[in-house]
Structure formats: C-alpha cells, structure tokens
Amino acid sequence: MSVYIVSDLHIWGPDDPLYSVLLALIGNQAKVDDVLVLAGDVFDLFVGSKAIFKKRYSEFFSALNRAGQRGVKIHYIEGNHDFLLGRAFARVQGLELHSESVSLEVQGKRFFVTHGDQADRRDFGYLILRAFFRSVPIRCLIWLVPGSWLDRLGRWSSRRSRNKNPLLVSQLPLERREVLRKVYRSFAAERLAQGYDFVVMGHCHDLDEMFFQIGGRPGQYVNVGFPRVHGSFLSWVPGEDKIHRERLPGV
Predict the structure, then answer these.
(1) How far apart are CA 184 and CA 47, in angstroms?
(2) pLDDT score recorded for residue 61
(3) How does DSSP assign 111-136, residue by residue?
C-alpha cells in the first residue's frame, strides 16, 4: 500500500504535456490498495461543475474512474485554482474530495496533506479573498454564470497573477524566501507535534523539505514544489521512514 502525492501541475488544457503525464501517473503508477493524493492546483482553472471543464478533462475523469475500479484510493484536495468541485467529482468511484486537507494513516504511519494556501495565517488579504470565493453568494454566481465566461475570466486572472508574482520561491528575494520557508516549516512542525509522521504541502512551488525531532519523535515536512519545472512527485512505500521524490512518468 504505497502513497503517491502530486500537486501544482497547473494544467492549462488537454494539449498541455503535463496532462498526459498526469494520466500516466493515474493509470500506471498507482496499483490496488495504493493511495493517490491530488493536492490542489492540479489544473490552472477548474471551478464548479461547469460542462466546459468536465468536457475539457474528460480523459482525466475516465482515468480516475478506472483507477477507483481497480482499487486505488483517491483523494483530491481543492486548491486556489480548482475548487467548489463537489458536483463535478460526485460520481468518481473511489474518490474523496477535501476542501482543505486530508489525514491518512497507512501501515502505521500518519500523513497530513494540505494544499498549503492557508499556511500563512498572517496573509489576511489572501485568506479573506479565499473565503469570499467560497461564500454562498459566489457559489450562486458561479452556478448562474455561463461556463465560457467563467473560463475567460479565470484565464485572465491566472495570467495576471503569473505576471505579478514569481512562479518559484527561489525567484524571491532571499529575505522573503526565508520568511516564507519559516512559515511553512512552522506550520508543518505544529502538525508533526500533533502526532503526524509526515506533513506534505504545495502551493508555494518551493522544492523544500525538512526533518524534525519533536517530543522524541522524528517527522518530515515536504513541499511538492512546481512539477512543471522540477519534474517530480512524491512517493512513500511501506517500511520507509521518509517520503521520496520521483521523476514524473515521461518527464
């Protein structure tokens, strides 16, 4: 019973090379009783249950269903680019959808996996914006707005965000980079102190990890990073005391 975790692929469409990589990961990597965690921002835009998104990524849903039918346990954690997905994923066999995080226990090891966009609890502007986009009025608006409008607005917003913010933590000034890493590592240390063996996050595109000794217990924090650049995902196999990075299939 192995565990595989990937996030922050930011797939922009069926022609994106990472889309076929994701399908291969779902179709070939995870076996019976394995756990596959898709930890948010798998797509650059997938909001609600609009037909435009479900049709665009129909092969993805087919791959998930086949994986669920062969006994793979699948968890999808919503990110800040893919959320309000309950109706879209309702009929996917063997999949559990999570709005923030998932706690897993596999072969005596405890995993805490979250997208990571709520790790910085002092970023009040983002946290307020996150709550706003998940509020009841916005849910109703998303339900009413044509999918093509939502698609165009989302693509414009993504382009604007990419032009404004660096894609990698390594591109930040050193001082800002160290502050951000301290935030994520402190968040991980809090969860490890609660008895988890592994804490996994994404969101900030930082290829970071750290080992801790808390209360006499070892623990590991790992950030997925940015697969488009780093070309990796995370894996754990029974008997191991650490999570490893593996090359994405075909990358």
Answers:
(1) 26
(2) 96
(3) EEEE-STTS-TT-HHHHHHHHHHTSH
Structure tokens at 101: 């995080």
Percentage of the residues of the chain whose pLDDT score is greater than 70: 95
- Report the CATH fold assignment for 3-247: Purple Acid Phosphatase; chain A, domain 2 (3.60.21)
175's tokens: 């001082």
Q: Which of 73, 65, 58, 56 is CA-nearest to residue 2?
A: 73
Residue 124 identity (one-letter amino acid): F
Global pTM?
Answer: 0.93
Largest CA distance in the chain: 55
- Domain range list for the chain: 3-247
Q: How far apart are CA 242 and CA 149, in angstroms?
A: 44
List beta partners, residue 105. 110
